[in-house]
Write a structure and sequence with these properties.
With 138 residues, the chain is an alpha+beta fold. Helix content is 30%, strand content 37%. It contains three helices and six strands. Strands 1, 2, 3, 4, 5 and 6 form a six-stranded antiparallel sheet that branches. Strand 3 and strand 4 form a beta hairpin. The N and C termini lie far apart (60 Å).
Length: 138
């Protein structure tokens, strides 16, 4: 009987540690080293992402705050600015080696898309204004 009681206590320790880790990541965010690794995995090729903090939203997903996205090698305005970007994911997909992301939500953000006639989309140079600029603010 005492052995069963001790086993229950030992089994409870990992559950408590897991809940503590989730609470810590929700309130304080990921450590900087983990944030950099995570950012490398979710960043699209050809883009540079600057952000303040990455936190774990228990019901939302991964939450990045004060996000700015730029095209690599280009100066000027970011094509995406947001106070918060929420990445929805399915953690079970990660176990299978997939990315697991199912959606994204911008909160208090702006997405800019520059278009020029006859060319692919490119960010304007500081002294050049394209004929059409589409800006979506959420």
């Amino acid at each position: 009987m005492k052995l069963k009681h001790r086993f229950n206590r030992v089994g409870l320790i990992p559950v408590v540690l897991f809940l503590f880790a989730v609470l810590y990541l929700s309130l304080h965010g990921f450590p900087d080293a983990w944030s950099r690794k995570l950012l490398k995995k979710i960043q699209y090729p050809g883009t540079v992402v600057a952000l303040d903090k990455i936190k774990l939203g228990v019901f939302e997903g991964i939450i990045a705050t004060r996000v700015k996205c730029y095209r690599k090698g280009e100066l000027g305005q970011p094509f995406l600015e947001a106070e918060r970007v929420v990445l929805y994911f399915n953690p079970l997909d990660w176990l299978g080696g997939e990315t697991g992301f199912t959606g994204v939500q911008l909160k208090k953000g702006t997405f800019r898309l520059w278009l020029k006639r006859g060319e692919t989309a490119a960010a304007p140079k500081p002294d050049d204004r394209p004929p059409l600029q589409i800006q979506i603010s959420l």
